[in-house]
Amino acid sequence: MRMVESFLMRTPCYAAGLKITVKGLMLHSVGCLQPKASAFISSWDSLAHGGFCVHGFIDGEDGTVYQTLPWNYRGWHCGSGGRGSGNNTHIGVEMCEPVCTKYTAGSNFVCSDLDAARAVAERTYRAAVELFAMLCGKYGLDPLADRIVISHREGCARGIASNHGDPEHLWGQLGIRVQVQLDCIGFLREDIKGYGLGMKAVYGVSGAVDGLYFCGKLRKNLIYCHMLRGIMQTVALL
Ligand SMILES: [Zn+2]
After folding, report:
1. N or C: which end of the chain has fewer CB within 10 A?
2. Which long-range contacts (CB under 8 A, 24 or more apart) does 85-90 make?
3. 180 CA distance to ligand 1 centroid (A)?
4. What is the pLDDT of residues 6-29, one digit of tens each?
5. Could you tell me the pTM of the whole model?
6. What's the gap in Å between 26 CA and the centre of ligand 1?
7. What's the pLDDT tens digit per position in 25-64?
């Protein structure tokens, strides 16, 4: 994982300088079709950029993680819900999104190059696994425990975030679906756990299955995969 420190020091959020006790990690997707983290960093780093600030962006073109706030700063990444705000407890990281055609209405978009878009989504997913595994180690968090690793969408469902559907909206529309017991975020949690246990993650394209998948090699050589095109299967069980 390549990580670059690029704090958004001109933002009101950074200036506020409030600290949190990190209790979890929230994964976001930027919600506009922009793969370059640098585009967000340059446009956000301003006093005029009042409303948002996150702890990091994952670049869609090369998977570099840009850390934009100290991890224990209080970010402004998820708003709030009926039970408070995940900003008080969770680090928030944005995955940049592939270049597609355009967003049409709300979280819906049309994609002109599905294969290229899936490659970007896979790249940012991998980096998120590695980054979150590192952060789980740093803060003593179990990614499989309740409320630790969540998406913005899950944060909303739990009443601690605004009404957004990311990043599942992205994966769903790119055809990344899971048939069996776990959803995509569930598999993200599994992959983070495996990575944090020192199991070197294995990613790639299965020759047996049409399309890309996300795959992490876990303890005992259990290999979990997120297949595109509605297919999920366990590739190898030893
Ligand atoms: Zn979000």
Report:
1. C
2. 85/160, 85/161, 86/24, 86/26, 86/150, 86/155, 86/160, 86/161, 87/20, 88/20, 89/20, 89/21, 89/22, 89/23, 89/24, 89/160, 90/22, 90/23, 90/24, 90/25, 90/26, 90/150, 90/155, 90/160
3. 25
4. 999 999 999 999 999 999 999 999
5. 0.84
6. 8
7. 999 999 999 999 999 999 999 988 878 999 999 999 999 9
Domains of the chain as residue ranges with CATH = 3-174 (3.40.80.10)
Q: From the CA of 221, how far away is ligand 1's center (Å)?
A: 33
C-alpha 15 to ligand 1 mean position (Å): 22
pLDDT tens digits, one per residue of 184-232: 787 778 777 767 665 544 443 333 333 333 444 333 333 334 433 233 3
Q: Ligand 1 centre and the CA of 114: distance in Å?
A: 22
Q: How far is the CA of 42 from the centre of ligand 1 (A)?
A: 19
